[in-house]
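[job 0412] stage=fold_complex status=start
inputs:
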Amino acid sequence: MRIQILGTGCAKCRQLTANAEQAVRELGVEVAVEKVEDVREIVKFHVLSTPALVVDGAVRSTGRVLAPAAIKELLGR
Amino acid sequence: MSTTIAEPARSGAGTPEAGPPPRPARLAAWLAAALAAWTGLYLVIEPAAGFVTHRLLGLPADTHVGSAVAFFLFEAPKVLLLLVLVVFGVGVVRSFFTPERTRAILSGRRESVGNVLAALLGVVTPFCSCSAVPLFLGFVEVGIPLGVTLSFLVSAPMVNEVALVLLFGLFGWKVAGLYLVTGLGIAIASGFVLGRLRLERWVEGWVYESMRQGAGYEAERLGFAGRVAKGVESVREVVGKVWPYVLAGIAVGAFIHGYVPEGLMAGIMGKQSWWSVPLAVVVGVPMYSNAAGIIPVVQALLGKGAALGTVLAFMMSVIGLSLPEMIILRKVLRPPLIATFVAVVATGILAVGFLFNAVL
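[job 0412] stage=fold_complex status=done
writing structure:
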């Protein structure tokens, strides 16, 4: 599994990264949460608002800070 | 908010954090009860503030401290309640206007109509200046004209529900209405002018090169419960962030209300000094603050006799144009375009400031 957080480094992006890390820890899976901060890389995912959560290359959420529980549910599916 | 009630609930369409979605009828009953409680609280504020100040604390209304305390105890709950209601409502409305849908509405529009639509959509589309670049690219990608995109980027941060509620709560509907209408006017006009200037060559080359049609992100479909959850989420996020600024602003206002004589600032920032508007814009543009953060300053300036046009110009330039946003946009726009953008928008703000100082 590959988890990426798209965002240029604002407070919301950091919060989403922290929540994703917590979700991963609670699920007990060995996977690093990658941060994508370069704008040129971010636009390749065609998102219109950040922070965005990408799981295995698919955009799963944009423009909002999901709670750890919501991220766990996304990852579990 | 009648649209939310009319929205048919789709089964199983709750947000990820909501778990199984509550039954729409039960949720509607909850909302009605919350609205009734809200109205009751709103009606009880004024007598309660008077009772606490004059009876419990024993402060007579005609003293400085009595008038300041009564003002604070009335205004603080009133503005916070208004903020909760409006932010909730806007949160629900915004769940209909995702950036993706706004882009779909704007693509294929001519300029002029496009500028007007972009400015209006800027008010209701959720936007954070840290998303300015992906949004800009996403708009340009589907062929939305540069000027139309810029209309959106002016209106989205400048004309927002927090600014409007605070202006309405503290200074009345006339000031809030003026801010809404002139803010939209600036966004429409400056986007139109910038579009006419043919500035596309100052967009960084890679923007047009990297354009390709791709399957964008499809937002999840939300039911009634999902939209209500969005409203609650934005209340938690927005009100949770801005309440200290709001209380600070009202405290400043209360102090001025009780203690400071009228007209202290009139000499420097009053109508008589024409240079006060340009000065307000020059000071305001590099500053960065959200609408709530700037309200204490606005409250202090107006309370001490500064002219309304000057103060509105200051507020618009602080929240509409900011150095951090320009630095972010520098990644896609070259300096001549950024400079022209700032100059055109600042000119619009100047015009608004002068207009109000002249007619009011």
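[job 0412] summary: The mean pLDDT of chain A is 86.
[job 0412] exit 0
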